[in-house]
Structure formats: structure tokens, C-alpha cells
Design goal:
The chain is mainly α. Helix content is 43%, strand content 6%. Helix 1 links the parallel strand 1 and strand 2. Helix 1 packs across helix 7. The radius of gyration is 18 Å and the shape is globular.
Length: 174
């Protein structure tokens, strides 16, 4: 039986693997690791998973050393910096990445609106800065920015997708 490793139960990489299983009608076994760092090291142990779910930037140096050969990107289209790697949607047309990895800043409940507005403005200004945005893009990130309301909508809209994957795969908290 084929298997894949991820950074842990419920991680974005685990959910993408389960979504692939559900969409492709296959059953590739999940091997959870404890975080991102142990996964590549685990490849040296036997038995090891047949594949690993890594972000493409993390996989790049390992590919150059001959340790990994990325087969696909879990995105609707090919990653701009790695156009040689097909998207999963090309291999399985029904696959639609419902899960994204989001880096965000959260504050305590009840944070005063003027403070939220100021922080949001400064963060958006920083993300758009000429010396910041290109660096983030170069490191494989999509820079979005926006308002707190935009972010809330992203989270609220994503919850049903996450929930459906989790329920279908029978994922339980550890």
C-alpha cells in the first residue's frame, strides 16, 4: 500500500492528502510526523512513507540534492516559480485545492477597532513594500493582504471545506 508523510494529523498537508484520496478514489495511507522538520529526516528510516507532503520551497533544496522529486503541486495551477511541476488538478481534473496555508496575525478578542485598523494598515503597507513583497514571492508565498473583514470571510468560507474533508476521512484530534 502506498503512503505519504505529513507534518501531523490535521495539518494542511494531511488534509490535502485526504482530499486527494477522496477526489481520486484512492486510499494512500497517511503517516503523521511531529512537525515539519522531522519529515525529511524520516525518509532515512525504514520503513518510510512512499511520499512526503512538503511545500515546494522546502522541497527545492532536497530535490537539487537528489532526495526528492516533486510530482505535483496542490494548487489550482502550476506554481509560478516551479512551472515544471504540474498541479494536482492536471493529474486529477476533479481535484480542487480547498485548503490553503495561511499566515496571519491574530489579536486578543475585544481589541479596540482603531488599533485593529492601524495594525492592519501597517501590515498591508509592509506587505506591499518594494523590498518586502518581492522577497515573499521569491520564497514561494502569495501576498494577499486586505482588510480584517476579508480575512474573516476567508476563514469562515474555508471552514465547511475543512470540515467536509475531516468528516469524510474520519480524522480525530490527538
Amino acid at each position: 500500500m502506498l503512503s505519504y508523510g505529513s507534518s501531523g494529523v490535521g495539518s494542511v498537508f494531511h488534509l490535502m492528502g485526504e482530499l486527494f484520496n477522496q477526489t481520486a478514489g484512492v486510499s494512500i495511507n497517511h503517516v503523521p510526523y511531529r512537525g515539519v522538520a522531522p519529515r525529511p529526516a524520516g525518509r532515512r528510516r525504514r520503513p518510510h512513507p512512499d511520499g512526503l507532503s512538503l511545500d515546494l520551497e522546502r522541497a527545492g533544496p532536497r530535490r537539487q540534492r537528489g532526495h526528492q522529486d516533486p510530482r505535483s503541486a496542490a494548487s489550482p495551477q502550476r506554481f509560478a516559480r516551479r512551472p515544471d511541476i504540474p498541479s494536482m488538478s492536471e493529474a486529477v481534473p476533479a481535484f480542487r485545492a480547498a485548503v490553503v496555508l495561511v499566515l496571519a496575525l491574530f489579536g486578543p478578542a475585544g481589541l479596540p477597532a482603531p488599533m485593529v485598523a492601524r495594525l492592519n494598515g501597517e501590515i498591508n503597507k509592509t506587505l506591499a513594500a518594494a523590498d518586502v513583497k518581492p522577497s515573499l514571492i521569491e520564497n514561494g508565498l502569495s501576498v494577499i493582504g486586505g482588510s480584517p473583514e476579508d480575512f474573516r470571510a476567508l476563514i469562515v468560507d474555508g471552514l465547511p471545506s475543512y470540515g467536509a474533508i475531516i468528516r469524510a476521512a474520519g480524522i480525530k484530534p490527538e
